[in-house]
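Hi R.,

Here's the chain you asked about this morning:
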Amino acid sequence: MAWRALVPLVAVLLVAGCGQESDRTDDPGAVTDAADSEAADAGEEPAAPATTEPDGAPDGDGAAENGDLDAEVQDLLDDLDFGEGGARVVLGDRTYEFALGGTSPEVDGRTYLGTCQTLFGAIVGTGYELDDGGVVTIEFELPPADWESYEDGRFDTVTPRIVIEDIATEETWAADPMLIDLYPEVDGASQIDDWVSDGTSASGTATFTAITPGRAPVEGAAPVQGTFELGCADD
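And the predicted structure, written out as tokens:
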């Protein structure tokens, strides 16, 4: 992913200590008994035994501080701009419409983030489609069609690729040359075939191959032809 948000967490350590030498004893009860005896001799009420909370038990102030920190982190995340956009992918006889911005409603305890960024002429992002209560996701990187002609290294970490995953069925389709590097047997069956891009939007054709959750080709699965259109909204 070409963007990254770092959220600093600040920890405060309070160390309090008081030192006055006293005779060492291995029996903490002996110290208490001695103190009570001295208090009795002086006509004072013995001090009530000190109580401590178990390790890890939050006090009221600590819980409030944690709540304040959570709110600050959420405010920081809300202020980050990951972009907006949309994508349409036709994969065989199936058409997907993805939101490339914002956060999805919660589905099975999870939410999904949509992003769309333009970086040095490349378009990168993630998105989601809500489908009958399930979720399908997309991730993509699309440099200019002549990306390999650039000699300044700007696209050294960018590969033309689109990956679509159905969360419920665990079906994943990849048009990704990096898969070919790992599994030469899928050469010609997992790549963006051709595309045009103006740095903000792109369209083209691709060949997708089915892959397992472990990102290995599904044995015996035939490649599927597809088309795509995607773009980021103007700032």
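Confidence is low (pLDDT under 50) at residues 1-32.

Let me know if you need anything else.
M.
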